[in-house]
Design goal:
By secondary structure, this protein is mainly α. 86% of the residues lie in helices and 0% in strands. The two termini are 22 Å apart.
Length: 127
């Protein structure tokens, strides 16, 4: 496989993982809504599911590097991981400080926005 095809493969892998991560964020919001408005049993799903995809921004950063995308995209992926850490922090400490519990959904909106920004920037750069 020549270098051009390999870079194309990494770019395709990056955008697929970026969309998977964005869909996972959306699914998390859905599960939180289900827990809040239908059945509190969904809180367990909401909590457990997050542990399956929190590492994806790091994988995205590695794929972005291999795909030879601009460094700003790589740093944005690390930023996404930082936002995820913020979400875990607000969830863990929310029982002690109620204001942090209120920040949890706001940070989620910020995370979703930044996921879409990464995808949009990537698509714009490589059309």
């Amino acid at each position: 496989m020549n270098s051009s095809k390999l870079v194309h493969f990494w770019r395709l892998s990056f955008i697929i993982i970026a969309w998977i991560f964005t869909i996972c964020i959306t699914t998390q919001v859905l599960m939180a809504g289900l827990a809040l408005f239908t059945n509190p049993m969904y809180w367990n799903s909401h909590t457990v599911f997050a542990r399956f995809f929190f590492f994806l921004p790091i994988l995205m950063a590695i794929l972005a590097y291999l795909a030879q995308v601009p460094k700003i995209t790589i740093w944005r992926c690390f930023g996404l991981f930082g936002i995820v850490i913020g979400l875990f922090f607000t969830a863990a400490i929310s029982s002690r400080f109620g204001i942090l519990a209120a920040l949890h959904p706001v940070i989620t909106i910020f995370l979703f926005y930044n996921c879409m920004k990464v995808i949009q920037t990537f698509n714009y750069q490589f059309q």
